[in-house]
Amino acid sequence: MLMVVIVVVMSVVIYSWSMGVFGAILPTPTGGKEILTFENQKFNNSTSVTLYLRNTGTSPTTIVSYYVQDLNSNECAKVSGWSSGPYQPTTLGQVTLNIVSPYCSWTGTAFQFQTGNVYTVTLVTSHSSQFAFSIQR
């Protein structure tokens, strides 16, 4: 019986010690969940689109980069020097994406938004969450 008590006590001590050590080096979990819901779009011209997004999560969300890809896998990437938000939970926000060379770097051939074509938009948040939407002009 004494052996069982010793094993239980040592298990508690080791568990407490490991949580203290690992708890100090592991990142603190974020305060909520990021969820962006696509509600609408507006093409401003052949190189600009405004997306209307609702934050249905529980954490404020800031978008820090975006990717726009056409059906031929040509892609505009804006990965630095730009952000939009923060969008508070339950609010509707708008984000304008530009697909001209000063705003993005290209993989493949540069394109413009053409009537009838479908594009995939991927938004990346400051917490590295990714949200992808299909839009059609």
What does this 3D model show about the protein?
- By secondary structure, the chain is of the alpha+beta class.
- The chain has one domain (36-136): Immunoglobulin-like.
- It is 18% helix and 44% strand.
- The protein is built from 1 helix and 9 strands; from the N terminus they run H-E-E-E-E-E-E-E-E-E.
- It has one helix spanning 2-25; strands at 36-45, 48-55, 61-69, 75-78, 84-87, 92-98, 105-107, 118-125, 130-136.
- Strands 3, 4, 5, 7, 8 and 9 form a 6-stranded antiparallel sheet that branches. The chain has a 3-stranded antiparallel sheet with strand order 1-2-6, with no helix packed on it.
- The protein is elongated.
- The chain starts with a helix and ends with a strand.
- The model has no long low-confidence stretch (mean pLDDT 87).
- Beta content comes to 35-45%
Q: Biggest sheet: strands, sense, closure? A: 6 strands, antiparallel
SS elements, strand count: 9
Structural class: alpha+beta
| DSSP summary: helix tally | 1
CATH architect. name: Sandwich
Number of domains: 1
Q: Kindly state the mean pLDDT as a whole number?
A: 87
As a percent range, the share of helical residues equals 10-25%
- Give start-end ranges of low-pLDDT stretches: none
The third-level CATH topology is Immunoglobulin-like
Radius of gyration: 23 Å
Order of helices and strands: HEEEEEEEEE
CATH class, named Mainly Beta
Can you tell me the overall shape?
elongated
Distance, first to last CA: 75 Å
